[in-house]
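Backbone-to-sequence.
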């Protein structure tokens, strides 16, 4: 029996005799090995169930959904919920049903009983993954505080130069008989030499990657990248090519 389970035996009612059986001298053990193994299994299940109820993941405040009838959703992704993973309070949890509320920048999961939702403590979230997107918790230093603020950023490119997107939604209240709706906004940033730069168009991107500017211009033209209509795609493909050039 592990040390932790021995401690558990001291506090779990109804297990005193069983614990004694595990810790008593060999000549006092129950001869019926099947009975002993079954009892051990039951104790282990009870212990694990008690432990699960206190997992660090299930800490946070209750999440109350907006009860109004609105067009769209406050969550990231078309389906709202995704089976993903979250690195929380120093532990990695996989196979978790996750909602990412873009209006309040909150990570939502089902509570342990699956009869409600809780929002995780943001300071305890290191990263999470949903819909094949990997979000990291960025806390800017003084050098970058004027460019971006603390929050969760979708990492689109990871290398010597990295690209991040901050995704937000705002509730637009209709002034007339039109239906109120959620509107999504995306903001893009490049991290180069530990400094962040906000990217809004082709000009701002080439300004940051200026050491390969001529090659990038040719690449953009050859691949017909459209920074006005498909900004995210253009930033990612251009940056990926830049990384190839400097490697």
């Amino acid at each position: 029996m592990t040390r932790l389970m021995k401690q558990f035996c001291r506090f779990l009612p109804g297990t005193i005799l069983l614990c004694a059986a595990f810790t008593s001298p060999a000549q006092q053990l129950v001869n019926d090995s099947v009975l002993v193994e079954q009892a051990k299994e039951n104790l282990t299940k009870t212990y694990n169930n008690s432990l699960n109820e206190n997992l660090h993941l299930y800490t946070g405040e209750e999440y109350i959904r907006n009860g109004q009838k609105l067009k769209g959703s406050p969550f990231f992704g078309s389906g709202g919920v995704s089976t993903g993973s979250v690195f929380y309070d120093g532990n990695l949890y996989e196979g978790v049903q996750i909602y990412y509320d873009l209006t309040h920048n909150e990570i939502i999961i089902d509570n342990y009983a699956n009869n409600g939702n809780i929002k995780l403590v943001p300071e305890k979230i290191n990263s999470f993954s949903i819909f094949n997107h990997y979000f990291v918790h960025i806390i800017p230093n003084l050098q970058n505080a004027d460019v971006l603020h603390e929050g969760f950023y979708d990492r689109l490119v990871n290398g010597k130069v990295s690209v991040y997107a901050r995704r937000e939604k705002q509730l637009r209240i209709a002034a007339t008989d039109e239906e109120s709706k959620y509107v999504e906004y995306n903001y893009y940033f490049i991290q180069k030499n530990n400094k962040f730069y906000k990217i809004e168009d082709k000009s701002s991107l080439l300004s940051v990657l200026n050491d390969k500017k001529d090659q990038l211009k040719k690449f953009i033209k050859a691949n017909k990248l459209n920074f006005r209509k498909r900004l995210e795609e253009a930033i990612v493909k251009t940056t990926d090519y830049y990384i190839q050039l400097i490697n």
